[in-house]
Amino acid sequence: MIKKITLILLMVIAYPITSQESKFELDCVNTSRPEFRLNYSIMRHMNPTISTGDSVEIGKAAGTSTAYPETISKLFEIPYRKAEAFYAERKFNEAVTILEPAIKTEKNNPFLLNFYAKSLYAANKRKESFKAYLNLISLIDAEETLNSDGSHNLVIIDTWFLEAYWKISTLYLEAQDYEKSIYYNRKMLDVITLGNTYYNPNMITYNISALSYLAEAYYFLKNKEANHFYVCETLKLDKNNKDVLQFLML
């Protein structure tokens, strides 16, 4: 028979979830954010408010994103704008179709690639979207380098393409590539807050999904400390969120 386990979230609230009979205390007072290991970071397309070498805490702004260029493509500006209109009308397949000639001609135009990948994603063409996002990431993050131990040396964060980092992180999660899902999710979620004041950490709808997906990824990686941190962060924003409790490591 399925019995109840009582989850006590210290300093916040108690949550009942379904499992075997026992009592579990989730300590959200002493959890800490997992380390994001890197040596250097370059923020692209931002107006900095700090100097090179200055330290900034997660969640504190280091600048503001610059605006997109007025012209996305000299050859395909009209199709691009039509694709935007189709997307706004939720005609995602039409947006994909009208962008295909542009993508074939301007393979290295990140704005066309981004909107193409975004439209494919919305049209639920995940495989095609993943390929398009990979092409985009290979362009905007081309300068990234790794250390000999596999940790990140130079991390590129392009503030024009925050959504691309987020979308590819969800696709990696679906593909069960949890390390890469975490990397791109965190580039968008917590590292990017250093460079973009337009990103509001209190935007609950956006944050809850990102935080709960991190909890899920760390669950499958069997990293209990990180898992607990992101479960706690999710519950702080949405105390009634039961989905994230499916991925709580006991």
Topology diagram in text:
Blueprint: E1 3-9, E2 13-19, E3 22-26, E4 38-44, E5 46-48, E6 63-65, H1 77-88, H2 92-105, H3 110-122, H4 126-140, E7 145-146, E8 152-158, H5 162-174, H6 178-191, H7 204-220, H8 224-237
Parallel strand pairs: 1-3, 4-8
Antiparallel strand pairs: 1-2, 5-6, 7-8
Distance between the termini: 20 Å
Number of helices: 8
CATH architecture of the domain at 35-201: Alpha Horseshoe
CATH domain topology of the domain at 35-201: Serine Threonine Protein Phosphatase 5, Tetratricopeptide repeat
Strand fraction: 15-25%
Overall shape: it is: globular
For the record, what is the CATH homologous superfamily label of the domain at 35-201? Tetratricopeptide repeat domain
Succession of helices and strands: EEEEEEHHHHEEHHHH
CATH domain class name of the domain at 35-201? Mainly Alpha
Question: Which class best fits the helix and strand makeup?
Answer: alpha/beta
Indicate the percent of residues in helices: 40-55%
Q: Main beta sheet, described?
A: 3 strands, mixed
Compact description:
The protein has helices at residues 77-88, 92-105, 110-122, 126-140, 162-174, 178-191, 204-220, 224-237; strands at 3-9, 13-19, 22-26, 38-44, 46-48, 63-65, 145-146, 152-158. By secondary structure, the protein is α/β, with parallel strands linked by helices. The protein is globular and about 60 Å long.
